[in-house]
Amino acid sequence: MKKHLTRGMTALILLMAGLLSAGCEKEEEVRLSTISVTVTMSSEYSSVPVGGIYVKLLNTQDNLKDSVMTSPAGLAVFENLPPGTYNISASKELTPAQVFDATGYNEEVTLNAVSDGVSPMPGEQRAVSLVMDGKPAGSLLIKQFYYSAGKVPQLPLLLLKDQFIEIYNNSDEVLYADGLYIAVLTPRAAGLASDQISQLPRDEFLYAEQVLRVPGSGQQYPIQPGESFVVAANGIDFTEGGQYSVTVDNSNADFEVNETAWLQERGFISNPVLNAPENPDVTDIEIVYFWASHGSFFYFNADGSSVAIFRSEQALTETVEDPLVPGYPYLKIPVSSVIDAVDFLYGENSAAHKRLPISLDASFNYIPGGSYKSGKSMMRKVVKTVGTREVLMDTNNSANDFVYGDVEQY
Questions:
Q1: The model's pTM
Q2: pLDDT tens-digit map of 257-314
Q3: 94-98, 103-107, 168-172, 305-309: least confident range
């Protein structure tokens, strides 16, 4: 009797286990989600077809990738997605002829759109809209940006002064640096856990806390095709042959930031430890905007810095404060005036801290493992070589256009 009962109970338990297993499978199937992506064009490129564009999907938790081509109506559907957070992007290159038909400008353009941090609920059918936009490829480009800085063992308080930015003539004609602006964009937040997300809109304006301008009368500083010029935070030699034995020799920079003289002219007290000695053999770049106080010094954010180069025929005077940073005015820069811009943030999960609209930089880039005083630099990729002139990549997407590595001596 006991044996018979035991067998019956065993059978019942197995049956219940099978039902539970089947129920779990059904429950797991129900929990899978769908993301439907609709691709449209900005008003400027409304005549460009939305079909035949690959939409890419990245699961940020396990780095699994997928792509689906849009239908003629611009629809791409990703089905049976497990729970997770997804980054979605699309890109389309237009020939000069296509751009001319759409806008009247005969230049290559890469259209981009990004939607990061999409987290559908289990079983949800999430709808996402991507609006593609872009600017013509720039002739002046940011070639190398060394913002992370190196360590200064001899003088640990001398922070970040070996930084520089290199700007390259990517065209086949002579261009002039005269009057070019370089803006260090805000907020300083780069995506660290303690950072707050900016509340300022980014569709029409950029916001800068430091703005520099190349001096000159108009044709005083020519840049030959395939050549570049360098703006250093401090134009001295930081190599082993120099004073501090760190990373690069900035004594050959074309311009340096002499904030010491600028501060003293305005009645501020400079800090001899933070304001490194200036090089009289390197031309001072003009300081246009610098929200300074006693002991201030110029620097790029070493945790992740975003910059823009632009031109403006009118003086820039309008400022605005971020609600999260009261008492700190930022200079407003029209997006329409920007020639090139890059978004470099703290890490792979920093998308919410972007400082640029997607029309200028569709995504962002970063130095893995944190950049602060790493001695690493961001460098733009080379697409091809025409004769001896390198043509640099410019898809208005820093995730595609740049790689990081040891800082390169220019």
A1: 0.75
A2: 998 888 888 888 877 666 667 899 999 999 999 987 766 888 899 999 999 999 998 8
A3: 103-107
In this structure, are residues 330 and 205 in contact, taking their beta carbons and an 8 Å threshold? no
Strands (E), 262-381: 283-284, 286-290, 306-310, 319-321, 329-334, 338-345, 365-366, 376-380
Quote the pLDDT of residue 140: 96
CB-CB contact of 341 with 408 (8 Å): no
* Distance (Å, whole) CA 199 – CA 307: 19
Which stretches does DSSP call E strand in 221-281?
Answer: 222-223, 228-232, 255-256
CA distance 267 to 270: 9
- Distance, CA of 275 to chain centre: 28
3-state secondary structure 364-404: CEECCCCCCCCCEEEEECEEEEECCEEEECCCCCHHHHEEE
Determine contact, residues 137/105, Cβ cutoff 8 Å.
no
Amino acid at 154: Q
Query: C-alpha distances in angstroms, 249 versus 69, 162, 182, 246?
Result: 48, 8, 21, 9
- 3-state class of 131 per DSSP? strand
Give the amino acid at 391. V
Contact 35/118 with Cβ under 8 angstroms? yes
Give me 7's structure tokens. 């067998």
Two structure tokens written together for 393: 């990549």
Q: How far apart are CA 140 and CA 223, in angstroms?
A: 9
Cα–Cα dist 35/364, whole Å:
23
C-alpha span between 137 and 147 (Å, rounded): 24
**Structure token pair of residue 223:** 């840049």
- Alpha-carbon distance of 183 to 177, in angstroms, equals 15
pLDDT digits (tens, 9 = 90+) for 335-344: 999 999 999 9
